[in-house]
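Render this sequence as a predicted structure.
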Amino acid sequence: MNSALRRENHSRPEGLEKSVELTSGEEIYALARALFPICRSLTGEGQRQTLRILREVIDLTVHEVPSGTRLFDWTVPREWNIRGAYIADRNGRKIVDFADSNLHVLGYSVPVERRMNLAALKPHLFSLPEHPDWIPYRTSYYQENWGFCLRHRTLLEMTDGEYEVRIDSSLQDGTLCYGEFAIPGKRAEEVLISCHICHPSLANDNLSGIAVAALLAKELAAKPRRYSYRFLFTPGQIGSIAWLCRNEGRAPLIKAGLILACLGDSGAFTYKKSRRGDSLIDRAVARALSDRGAPFQTMEFSPFGYDERQFCSPGFNLPVGCFMRTPHGCFPEYHTSADNLEFISAGNLAESFDCCRAIIDVLEEERTLVNLLPKCEPQLGKRGLYGSIGGASGAREREMGLLWVLNLSDGRHSLLDIAQRSGLSFRQIAEAAAALEERGLVQERKPEGKRPRVKGKIENHG
């Protein structure tokens, strides 16, 4: 079943302006801050509340898939909601309270209301001895269980005796929700941007990805585009499986894709390649990151991680990679209460956003050209493309860009190829290509069977 959630009246997150032309780090951070208190999971009201807030940023369509729906080898689980939970000691003092942190309850905990001693309670308690003041994040999505996550310091202070344990939750038939925002372009081929929306109050993983994706979609919707763009906001794993199962016929339109996660910390950028390893998105990200001149790392594909593993499953093998700063599991704050709003920053989010924009710029401008005057070099000076006085700052690079584009525009080398071989930035090559196109010296290669008209017959000399 497909249905759009009703738009509800609620205030726009403070700091989030609707008409900002150039997205700022403060705007991205404001959206993450507005989403931070919500208790999200695979299903439930937390998802719906999150998607309602995102609908204040972009015109999101929200789909709901009923519990029990078969999705390839998976089944949509029952919907989970929680209203409160606590552990109280013999004096009625709440020593663990869901109201203080939504990480305190094991995700998808079944309802519990009982009294029990510490020995019986301990198997249901999760803490981090190495970080005694942090609360861990734990879930049990597909096996019924219950539990509490607490600071290890609190666990050490618990003494023998009876405790009141209460989890006011429900696990019943409902729906799984995901959001989708499509932006049509000149081409039917699509660029996919996806992020997971199933984590509660965790800022880097993955409110950073959600906020960057939403505001990137907002900015792209206001610009002319070659490609069409599709943004997905889904619960991890089961959400992307749901979209793929319901859009199997559309999936081949995906020309390139990125999973966005962990974009708010201060680590260097990391890109995990698609299963193909050498697709357009793999090359575009590598070029955009290389042109920044700052350290970054590239990871080969592996079938573990975020939703890229679903899009890259062998039955689809889509060109989808994962763009991060510090990878999941590689920073100590990962899946703990220390992954809070203080762990991310507006500056880091802005830098991540700018990198995503640069990657999209490469995707949009990448093409293969044909030199229309391939016999020797055309005279550039009479076309205003060569400076009359040498030595001007930047002139050498601009002229080299023109010469490289002319020389390698043979219908076989793309602009990415030319940037790689020349050692110039993609921006320099793209600007040179645009200048040459404007003067009628090169044009984009036509599909097979439609060759561009080349001025002057080319002869073979044996």
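Summary. The longest strand covers residues 162-172. The chain is about 30% helix and 20% strand.
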